[in-house]
């Protein structure tokens, strides 16, 4: 019997529906359940063919457990090794190499010194930074947000240089991005599962959280095709099996705004019943597919084109 587990925190609707949907299919030799952990010994088999990870970004103990599980052949969704290395600035930089339009973006050193450092720790950093060049490149209005993480935490909209310097003081030891604001005509949030299944959802980020999926954008067939190709290209290069990509359309061009969401919102109250039904069904089918293909003791993780091409010496 191959077990599919889901590792989660306080969310309930998606994990419960995911487990129930898999088990309702009665696939011979496949069963789904919430992951149960009573101890983690080095090199020990987790007992799961597949684990869907919804929480390890917030719990380092879980991240270590998943890496250990992967060593014994568990197919972890998403790859915990890549997820540990990935962040939003790298994703933007990669996008510029794979012909995905993104806002002009720079990364900034933290306003406060990191713990256990002093001014002497930054011998290679020119002070002051080339603020004039940075602001000329990005422009205003702009957004400032952490280079890693998500959930709209510590996000600032900035109107001027003075506004930037005032708000940057509030960010402490966080490493921030400064990013061009895309004044959009349309906005979409796109699920991508298995690097092959895409659901494009009209999305209005200016609405209250519970109303963000209530949007009336009506893309043409050509626009849908264009956005689907962008979403697939991003996830094929990053190697994520479950991710969301946010696209802001300006002057007919979809810009990838945020595309490092490997534990994307899938709660029925926020995404709505139709989107919820799609993500539960598609994710259940994909997890079963991965469980059937899983080979005990081997590497069953997904690796993106960036890693595969780099390891073989190929250009992006």
What's the tally of helices? 10
The CATH class of the domain at 2-80: Alpha Beta
Helix content: 25-40%
CATH topology of the domain at 2-80: Rossmann fold
Helix- and strand-based class?
Answer: alpha/beta
| Helix-strand sequence | EHEEHEHHEHEEHEEEHEEHHH
Low-pLDDT ranges? none
Shape: globular
How much of the residues is beta strand, in percent? 15-25%
Level-2 CATH architecture of the domain at 2-80 = 3-Layer(aba) Sandwich
The rounded distance between the terminal residues' Cα atoms is 40 Å
* Number of beta strands: 12
Mean pLDDT across all amino acids: 96
Strand order of the largest sheet: 2-1-3-4
| Alpha carbon gyration radius | 21 Å
Question: Largest sheet, described in full?
Answer: 4 strands, parallel
Written overview of the protein:
This protein is of the alpha/beta class and about 325 residues long. Among the domains are: about 1-80, Rossmann fold (3-Layer(aba) Sandwich); about 105-180, Dna Ligase, domain 1, CATH 3.30.1490.20. It has helices spanning about 15-25, 60-70, 80-85, 90-95, 130-140, 160-170, 220-240, 270, 275-295, 305-310; strands at about 1-5, 30-35, 50-55, 75, 105-110, 140-145, 155-160, 175-180, 185-195, 195-200, 240-250, 255-260. The strands form three sheets. A four-stranded parallel sheet has the order 2-1-3-4, with helices on both faces. Strands 5-8-6-7 form a four-stranded antiparallel sheet, with helices on both faces. Strands 10-9-11-12 form a four-stranded antiparallel sheet. The protein is globular and about 65 Å long. The relative contact order is 0.17.
């Amino acid at each position: 019997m191959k077990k599919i587990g889901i590792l989660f925190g306080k969310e309930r609707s998606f994990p419960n529906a995911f487990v129930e949907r898999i088990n309702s299919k009665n696939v011979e030799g496949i069963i789904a359940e919430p992951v149960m952990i009573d101890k983690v010994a080095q090199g020990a088999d987790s007992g799961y063919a597949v684990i869907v990870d919804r929480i390890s970004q917030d719990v380092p103990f879980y991240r270590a457990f998943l890496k250990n599980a992967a060593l014994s052949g568990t197919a972890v969704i998403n790859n915990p090794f890549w997820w540990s290395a990935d962040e939003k600035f790298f994703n933007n930089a990669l996008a510029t190499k794979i012909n995905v339009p993104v806002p002009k973006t720079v990364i900034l050193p933290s306003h406060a010194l990191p713990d256990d450092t002093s001014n002497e720790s930054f011998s290679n950093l020119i002070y002051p930074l080339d603020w004039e060049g940075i602001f000329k490149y990005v422009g205003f209005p702009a957004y400032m947000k952490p280079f890693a993480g998500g959930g709209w935490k510590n996000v600032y909209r900035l109107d001027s240089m003075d506004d930037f310097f005032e708000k940057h003081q509030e960010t402490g030891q966080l490493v921030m991005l400064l990013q061009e604001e895309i004044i959009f005509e349309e906005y979409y949030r796109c699920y991508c599962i298995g690097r092959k299944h895409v659901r494009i959802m009209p999305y209005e980020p200016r609405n209250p959280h519970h109303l963000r999926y209530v949007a009336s954008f009506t893309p043409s067939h050509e626009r849908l095709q264009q956005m689907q190709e962008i979403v697939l290209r991003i996830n094929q290069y990053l190697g994520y099996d479950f991710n969301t990509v946010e696209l802001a359309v300006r002057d007919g061009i979809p810009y990838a705004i945020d595309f490092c969401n490997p534990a994307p919102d899938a709660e029925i109250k926020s995404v709505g019943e139709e989107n919820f039904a799609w993500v539960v069904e598609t994710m259940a089918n994909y997890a079963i597919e991965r469980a059937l293909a899983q080979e005990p003791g081997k590497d069953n993780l997904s690796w993106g084109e960036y890693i595969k091409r780099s390891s073989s010496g190929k250009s992006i």
